[in-house]
Amino acid sequence: MSKAETILERLEMVRKTGSSKWIARCPAHDDGTPSLSVTEIEGGNRVLIHCHGGCGALDVLESIGLDWSALYQTTKTDTAHCIGLIKTKKPLTT
Ligand SMILES: [Zn+2]
Questions:
Q1: pLDDT by residue (tens digit) across 58-91?
Q2: Looking at residue 1, what is its pLDDT?
Q3: Backbone dihedral angles phi then psi of residue 88, each to the nearest 5 degrees
């Protein structure tokens, strides 16, 4: 199963809008009309999600029980970097 399929199967009102593009109901806000775009890039190795209602990508992912790894293959460094952008940085303990 591709990364996009993993995400799309958890979304509602999914509609294909292009060769590697879909639109679906955003799970992170009360979305009356589908406003979450899902785009597959790099031959399916990466997926971009964008809520036109303004939800953050991580909010959307957490609403469907996923995290950044659903969008693209991450190394530990990449994941830490992404989370660092969202959450308050913890002070170094070492
Ligand atoms: Zn949204």
A1: 999 999 999 999 998 765 555 555 555 545 455 6
A2: 84
A3: -65, 135
Q: What is the pLDDT of residues 28-59, one digit of tens each?
A: 999 999 999 999 999 888 999 999 999 999 99
Q: For 58, how many CA atoms within 13 A lie in the half-sphere containing its CB?
A: 8
Distance 50 CA to ligand 1 centre (A): 8
Taking the centre of ligand 1 as the mean of its atom positions, its distance from the CA of residue 29, in whole angstroms, is 5
Q: Find the 30 Cα to ligand 1 centroid distance in Å.
A: 7
Which domains are assigned to the chain? 3-86 (3.90.580)
Residue 2 CA, chain-centre distance (Å), reads 14
Q: What does the alpha-carbon distance between residue 5 and residue 81 come to, in Å, rounded to a whole number?
A: 25
